[in-house]
């Protein structure tokens, strides 16, 4: 009799698990179907990109984007929509930059550059000097002040083309853009030119953030990016003539901080309202294009997660919150502010998902979590197999959700196919026409499916002992 009861219990548990698995499969199928046949992400992105455009922090366009996305979230009938004030830097590019290489007196070749975000301007007449080409800070230090003072430093370390993970290639050379001016100023350089962070050869300069750290204002030198084609040209010309000169002029300016906002909306959880699941992207962008891939795609995909919950009548157990972060590109003020207020309020963020890698075909997710939670994620892989989502790896999440990290929660980042991402990243061709509607909608569905699973099952609260030791 005891054995029969045990067998019956096993049978019941097995049947429940099988039924739940079938339910999850059906819900996820509906999520993908609805996103692909009745989605709204592409329509939102069209307006954000073509009617508003580039959304540099502190700009009028950024303000328009805040108002637009708040209004659209309010239309969804969420439990609550609000703005979270945050002070952000205001940097303006000014008139278009101009540059040329001078191979001999009066013989010049015009090249494509753009000021790096946060850079100071050149003097009104511009800067012209001989050029020192380097590929690392170590090489810079070896040359020393005697070989650098009064010259323009040209950082020409390309992204490593044989790395399949293109973000790894980006990470391997972006320090020359971010800290190049600080390092060059130590040796008396008069300016900095940096090879664009781009894996292909083209004529488009790619901007991005840079820092002066605590360098006094009178020691700060102008810093600009040069297109990859023109970086190759400059390097070739320097090999033929080390006395060739470079001229550039830019009119950018750093103004006082201004107030902006994170845009937030939520559906209150029906069973565990104090357990918060956050999904988001950053609302700001650079100013050269319209920021469709970086990060308009992440913004509208995150909005679509909540819309799909509403359209499919999925009543979440936990509170699902969308956060459209401001100022990821040149300060991360929005992400830090959100985490600061969450901590002050004692909010329990069990899971946070970010989309900030473009609107290309989704491949999966990267996770920042303990082993127990990662094993839970791996158990869900079969549910994603029909949609060709196969990448489930530990290794980071996203810049804006990163400040929410705790010992027990899970942070994740959507990982689309990134092979073409850096063709557009921070450049003038980061535009709406570069985004494929179906790929964007697949990404939104993939995010929604993962949020649905975390809402259904929660997270494993047991921290990894090795994490605690750290």
UniProtKB/TrEMBL annotation:
The record ties this protein, via SUPFAM superfamilies, to: PA domain, Zn-dependent exopeptidases
Q: Name one Pfam family in it.
A: Peptidase_M28
UniProt entry keywords in alphabetical sequence: Carboxypeptidase, Endoplasmic reticulum, Glycoprotein, Golgi apparatus, Hydrolase, Lysosome, Metal-binding, Metalloprotease, Protease, Secreted, Signal, Zinc, Zymogen
Secretion signal, residue range per the UniProt entry: 1-21
The organism's superkingdom is given as Bacteria
Peptidase M28 domain span: 262-448
Example GO BP:
proteolysis
Which compartments does it reside in?
Endoplasmic reticulum; Golgi apparatus; Lysosome; Secreted
- Main subcellular location of this protein, as a coarse class: endoplasmic reticulum
Which Gene Ontology cellular component annotation is one that this UniProt entry carries? extracellular region
From the Swiss-Prot or TrEMBL record, what is one GO molecular function term?
carboxypeptidase activity
Q: Which PANTHER family match?
A: CARBOXYPEPTIDASE Q, PROTEASE FAMILY M28 PLASMA GLUTAMATE CARBOXYPEPTIDASE-RELATED
Q: How does it assemble?
A: Homodimer. The monomeric form is inactive while the homodimer is active.
Could you tell me what this protein is called? Answer: Carboxypeptidase Q
| Species per Swiss-Prot/TrEMBL record | Jejuia pallidilutea
């Amino acid at each position: 009799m005891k054995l029969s009861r045990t067998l019956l219990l096993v049978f019941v548990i097995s049947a429940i698990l099988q039924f739940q698995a079938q339910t999850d499969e059906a819900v996820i199928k509906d999520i993908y179907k609805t996103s692909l046949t009745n989605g709204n992400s592409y329509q939102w992105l069209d307006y954000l990109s073509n009617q508003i455009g580039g959304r540099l922090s502190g700009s009028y366009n950024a303000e328009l984007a805040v108002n637009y996305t708040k209004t659209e979230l309010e239309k969804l009938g969420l439990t609550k929509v609000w703005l979270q004030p945050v002070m952000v830097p205001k940097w303006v590019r000014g008139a278009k930059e101009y540059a040329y290489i001078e191979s001999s007196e009066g013989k010049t070749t015009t090249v494509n550059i753009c000021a790096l975000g946060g850079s100071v301007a050149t003097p009104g007449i511009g800067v012209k000097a001989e050029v020192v080409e380097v590929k690392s800070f170590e090489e810079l230090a070896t040359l020393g002040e005697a070989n650098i003072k009064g010259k323009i430093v040209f950082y020409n370390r390309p992204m490593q083309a044989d790395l399949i993970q293109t973000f790894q290639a980006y990470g391997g050379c972006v320090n020359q853009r971010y800290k190049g001016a600080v390092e060059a100023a130590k040796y008396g350089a008069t300016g900095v030119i940096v090879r664009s962070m781009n894996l292909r050869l083209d004529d488009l300069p790619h901007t991005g953030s840079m820092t002066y750290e605590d360098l006094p204002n009178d020691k700060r030198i102008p810093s600009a990016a040069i297109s990859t084609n023109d970086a190759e040209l400059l390097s070739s010309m320097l090999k033929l003539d080390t006395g060739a000169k470079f001229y550039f002029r830019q009119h950018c300016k750093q103004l006082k901080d201004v107030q902006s906002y994170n845009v937030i909306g939520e559906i209150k959880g029906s069973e565990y309202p104090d357990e918060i699941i956050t999904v988001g992207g950053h609302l700001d962008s650079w100013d050269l294009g319209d920021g469709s891939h970086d990060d308009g795609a992440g913004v509208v995909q995150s909005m679509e997660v909540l819309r799909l919950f509403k359209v499919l009548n999925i009543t979440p157990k936990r509170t699902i919150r969308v956060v459209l972060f401001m100022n990821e590109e040149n300060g991360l003020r929005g992400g830090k502010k959100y985490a600061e207020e969450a901590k002050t309020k004692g909010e329990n963020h069990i899971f946070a998902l970010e989309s900030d890698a473009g609107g290309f075909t989704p491949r999966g997710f990267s996770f920042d979590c303990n082993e127990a939670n990662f094993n839970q994620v791996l158990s869900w892989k079969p549910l994603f197999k029909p949609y060709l989502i196969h990448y489930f790896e530990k290794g980071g999440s996203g810049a804006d959700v990163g400040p929410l990290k705790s010992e027990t929660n899970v942070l994740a980042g959507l990982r689309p196919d990134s092979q073409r991402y850096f063709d557009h990243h921070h450049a003038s061709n980061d535009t709406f026409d570069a985004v494929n509607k179906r790929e964007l909608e697949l990404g939104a569905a993939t995010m929604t499916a993962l949020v649905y699973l975390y809402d259904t099952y929660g997270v494993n609260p047991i921290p990894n002992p090795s994490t605690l030791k750290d």
